[in-house]
Amino acid sequence: MAMKIRLARGGSKKRPFYSIVAADSRMPRDGRFIEKLGTYNPLLAKDSEERVKMDLERVQYWLGQGAQPTDRVSRMLEAAGVLAKKERNNPKKAVPGKKAQDRAEEKAAKAAEAAEAAAAPAEEAAEE
């Protein structure tokens, strides 16, 4: 059975609250799980101790059994010191999307036209 350590969403609309669970990877996100390992409350401040709570002994047990943490859970485990930090490479992280690039090009073209239009009367006045 392929095991995952992942987040199961709870809480009401626009007020997320997550349980960190060990579940079969074939089960739905908020569906059946084998064991609850902790909680995650993203609404709390990042430096709050109540934001992420985990039973690290049980997490270690499931990792030993071959459970694979999801990306978000693995980041939490790295912060807790359970897992070694992975090298992540996202070279496109700071590059804006295609539409944003198109808008920036249009804005630059309009600014260049406005600068040319403003410069043309000044040149004519200088010639006289």
Query: What percent of the residues sit in helical stretches (DSSP H or I)?
Result: 25-40%
What portion of the residues fall into strands of 2 or more residues? 15-25%
CATH topology of the largest domain: S16 Ribosomal Protein, Chain: A
> In DSSP terms, counting alpha (H) and pi (I) runs of 4 or more, how many helices?
3
Topology as a string of helices (H) and strands (E): EEEEHEHH
Number of strands: 5
Q: What is the averaged pLDDT score?
A: 88
Strand order of the largest sheet: 4-3-2-1-5
Total domain count: 2
Low-pLDDT ranges:
none
Judging from the principal axes of the Cα atoms, what is the shape? elongated
Largest sheet: 5 strands, mixed
The CATH architecture of the largest domain can be given as 2-Layer Sandwich
Rg over alpha carbons: 26 Å
SS-derived structural category: alpha+beta
The CATH superfamily of the largest domain is known as: Ribosomal protein S16
Distance between the termini: 87 Å
